[in-house]
Amino acid sequence: DAGVIQSPRHEVTEMGQEVTLRCKPISGHDYLFWYRQTMMRGLELLIYFNNNVPIDDSGMPEDRFSAKMPNASFSTLKIQPSEPRDSAVYFCASSLGPQPQHFGDGTRLSIL
Amino acid sequence: DAKTTQPPSMDCAEGRAANLPCNHSTISGNEYVYWYRQIHSQGPQYIIHGLKNNETNEMASLIITEDRKSSTLILPHATLRDTAVYYCIVRSQNDYKLSFGAGTTVTVRA
């Protein structure tokens, strides 16, 4: 069975550039989550969706970050403009209702 | 606010059982105990969860004390591939947020 698929796996770009991270959740799952992991702050939830609708975006750091879910099989997390402090590993996860969340292998983002 | 307390690290011999403790003294009656692990360069992987009864699956066993203030994750026969950071998390079924703490770094040695 295909798990959560994230792309790209690695992204290196210069500050000020727009960055788009992509996620394909597990088919049939109705919840989608975006997390960020850094050494300083650990794993933290940024935003989550239910049936393509954002439910809680209180973890989104600032207006430079935006997330969309245009359909049940695709979501994006966009950073514009990017800054060096956005460097982190970004994970996407999905779940069926309150069942355990399943994570992708993440996108390692480096902003120079 | 941390809801769980775990030792920062522990070592385990390959082939032996690994017992990972977790304290959650402020757990509410409707909160479950979840365990995830994160192997280097991978996303967190769900292991097991329980409410008050002990649980077992193909990966591990979860023992929850009667007062539910602590629990132990048991890896029955640790292998080198079990080396990872293990996270103990409490959440209610209607709270979709997973709050990851620092976890326990488990190193399985040959």
Question: How would you characterize this protein structure?
Answer:
The complex is a heterodimer of chains A (112) and B (110). Chain A is built from no helices and 11 strands. Chain A is mainly β and 112 residues long. Chain B is built from no helices and 9 strands. In chain B, the strands form 2 sheets. Chain B has a 5-stranded mixed sheet, with no helix packed on it. In chain B, a hairpin with a 4-residue loop joins β5 and β6. The chains are: A mainly beta (112), B mainly beta (110). The interface between A and B is medium-sized, with 22 and 17 residues.
Q: How many E strands of chain A?
A: 11
Question: Globular, elongated, flat, extended or rod-shaped: what is the shape of chain B?
Answer: globular
Helical percent range of chain B? under 10%
Largest interface: A-B, 22 and 17 residues
> What is the radius of gyration of chain A?
13 Å
Which structural class do the helices and strands of chain B define?
mainly beta
Low-confidence stretches of chain A: none
> In terms of quaternary structure, what is this?
heterodimer
Tell me the number of strands of chain B.
9
Report the mean per-residue pLDDT of chain A as an integer.
Answer: 96
**Mean pLDDT over the residues of chain B:** 94
Helix amount of chain A: under 10%
The dominant shape of chain A is globular
Please provide the ordered H/E string of secondary-structure elements of chain B: EEEEEEEEE
Q: Characterize the biggest β-sheet of chain B.
A: 5 strands, mixed
Task: Briefly characterize the structure.
Chain A has strands spanning 5-7, 10-13, 19-24, 31-38, 42-50, 53-56, 65-71, 74-79, 88-95, 102-103, 107-111. Chain A has 112 residues and is mainly β.
